Amino acid sequence: MKLTISRKLLFGYLFMALLTLLVSASAIFHLQKLNQAAYDITHRHFIVVETAKSMRDALLAQESTEKKYFIFKDPSLEQIFWQRDADFKAGLETIKKLNIGKYRDNGFNNIALLHERYGNYFSQEVNLLKEGRLQDAMALSDSSSRAAIDEMALLLKNIQTGTDKAINDKMNFITSQSSNATNMTLSISLFSLILGIALALVITRNI
């Protein structure tokens, strides 16, 4: 079939349209991956890090309140302890809902179990102090309660460390994808330019 000028122009336009779609599809694909990575960082990873910090603060506040109760035996300190207890549990639920990083149900369950035990230890200490058994209460605080606090603090630190690493990995991914997208777009654009020139020469040949 002999190609007339109009047919050459039509094929040329169709070819350039196809290349344009290819460039656009590539850009959209990379943009979606970048948007997902950015969303994970801002709406998940950062929240996990800040929540873990808040949980550690709540745990330290509970420990401080526990020690103060030994001195003052003030019922208001019990209320403060349980308020911080609720703050800690709320933070744990927040992290569980996000459910990211290497910590899954087992890690969360361990933290929840240790925190529940710590609350029970405090209740036992309060009862022992009310019975005048100061030495027994102090022994429980220095052994079981202390061990539970240390283990929870370590688990929370591991969550923070793992999430910080995930953030760095995502940032590296964004940098890599941005570079790849730029290089691919430039390559396709250059390829399109070369083919466009070649196509123009073919179309105008024998005119």
Shape: rod-shaped
Under CATH at level 1, the class stands as Mainly Alpha
Radius of gyration: 31 Å
What's the count of strands?
0
CATH topology: Four Helix Bundle (Hemerythrin (Met), subunit A)
Query: Whole-Å distance between the termini?
Result: 17 Å
Spans of 5+ residues with little confidence (pLDDT < 50)?
Answer: none
What is the number of independent domains?
1
- Estimated structural class: mainly alpha
Which CATH-level-2 architecture?
A: Up-down Bundle
- Count of alpha and pi helical runs: 4
Profile the largest sheet. none
Q: Mean pLDDT score, rounded?
A: 87
Structure description:
Helix 1 runs antiparallel to helix 2. By secondary structure, the protein is mostly helical. 91% of the residues lie in helices and 0% in strands. The chain is built from 4 helices and no strands. It has helices at 5-72, 75-98, 105-130, 134-204.
Give descriptors for this structure.
single chain; 207 residues; Four Helix Bundle (Hemerythrin (Met), subunit A); 4 helices; rod-shaped
Write the layout of secondary structure elements.
Layout: H1 5-72, H2 75-98, H3 105-130, H4 134-204
Helix pairs in contact: 1-2, 1-4, 2-3, 3-4
